[in-house]
Design brief:
Helix content is 42%, strand content 19%. It contains ten helices and ten strands. It has a five-stranded mixed β-sheet, with helices on both faces. The protein has a five-stranded mixed β-sheet with strand order 8-7-6-9-10, sandwiched between helices. A hairpin with a 4-residue loop joins β6 and β7. α2 packs parallel to α3, α5 runs parallel beside α7 and α6 packs across α8. The two termini are 29 Å apart. The protein binds 5'-O-[(R)-(carboxyoxy)(hydroxy)phosphoryl]adenosine and zinc ion.
């Protein structure tokens, strides 16, 4: 039996999980720093690092206890090595490598984006390489061809803002607290998506890349000149959600029509969005592919995705190295393992 402890500290969630071969995900805790960062309207890196440092040990103990195992059962410790905030990554990496060294077990540095993608396979073993992945998070918006474990090609990327960033900035404009993506989607439920005609950036342009900054500017302009009633907040939220989803789906559909692929994984925080999920399901059906979404609780940052990715690499013949701490704040997924 193989048991992996996973540690995630790349941004504003301290998260720990235990994954084991026989029982699957058997312990899983996330401590969100959102309330701490909210007064600043975004993540304050120094505060994030300090908070990870103060919470991590307690969270590891809690997770090991709820997994009903002990430290001596752990075969390897997987931790997020990047991309992410340097100081925040260092807390998780330093903790993981020290603990592993004291237990005489290996560490497995994990790529955060790969972990977001692979977590879809945790509950859906039917997914097999190669497959396509739409990664929609707070920092990234990419379509990735997952050729094999650790082997990824980026087929489309955003030229400017990430989709989650666009959600968060629109949410802030409408007076919602950071990060705002989910609250904005709830606001949108009471709105008329046709009220504000917003642009669909990149439509008609060659290639598959995405762009959201023009849409963000249009949302700001629409808000500036409107009556700012409660109904207008709902309507702008709904119009934005429609435009952003439409833009994303339109480019994705174009790509699907020229890339053969029968499996599409949707990953990252924005994959929790109900409207996006619905539209992607319809798009996948039109294009003959099966969409796979991780459970919503595992879309945003969590330790399960790190523990599970560690497990996959461990089983794939991971070659233990010395427990040298690795952090790569900027780490293109294509350069993984190279
Ligand atoms: O993947 P994630 O937890 O962190 C990064 O790796 O970036 O994604 C966080 C992003 C935030 O922008 C948040 O607002 C967005 O995911 N998000 C959502 C929803 N839930 C989280 N956006 C739209 N609708 C949601 N339901
Ligand atoms: Zn993430």
């Amino acid at each position: 039996m193989t048991t992996i402890l996973g540690i995630e500290t790349s941004c504003d969630e301290t998260a720990v999980a235990v994954y084991d071969q026989d029982n699957g995900l058997c312990g899983h805790h996330v401590y969100s720093q959102i309330a701490m960062h909210q007064p600043f309207g975004g993540v304050v890196p120094e505060l994030a690092s300090r908070d990870h440092a103060s919470k991590l040990l307690g969270l590891v103990k809690q997770t090991i206890a709820s997994a009903q195992c002990c430290l001596s059962d752990i075969d390897a410790i997987a931790y997020t090595a990047g991309p992410g905030l340097a100081g925040a990554l260092m807390v998780g990496a330093g903790f993981a490598t020290s603990l592993a060294e004291s237990l005489a077990i290996p560490t497995i540095p994990i790529h955060h984006l790969e972990a977001h993608i692979l977590v879809a396979c945790l509950e859906e073993p039917a997914i097999t390489f190669p497959f396509l992945a739409l990664l929609v998070s707070g920092g990234h918006t990419q379509v990735i061809e997952a050729k094999a474990l650790g082997d990824y090609v980026v087929l489309a990327d955003t030229l400017d803002d990430a989709i989650g960033e666009a959600f968060d900035k629109t949410a802030k404009l409408l007076g919602l607290p950071y990060p705002g993506g989910q609250a904005l989607s709830e606001l949108a439920e009471g709105g008329d998506p046709m009220r504000f005609p917003l642009p669909r950036p990149m439509r008609g342009r060659p290639g598959y890349d995405l762009s959201f900054s023009g849409l963000k500017t249009a949302v700001f302009q629409a808000w500036e000149v409107c009556d700012k009633t409660e109904q207008s907040r709902y309507d702008l939220a709904a119009s934005f959600q429609l435009a952003v989803t439409d833009s994303c789906c339109h480019r994705l559909e174009k790509l699907l029509q020229s890339h053969v692929g029968s499996q599409l994984v949707i990953a990252g925080g924005v994959a929790a969005n109900t409207y996006l999920r619905r539209e992607i399901k319809a798009l996948a059906a039109r294009n003959g592919c099966v969409p796979y979404f991780p459970p919503t609780a595992l879309c945003t940052d969590n330790g399960a995705m790190v523990a599970y990715s560690g497990y996959r690499h461990y089983k794939n013949g991971w070659q233990p190295q010395d427990n040298q701490m690795c952090i790569y704040p900027r780490w293109p997924i294509e350069s993984y393992g190279k």
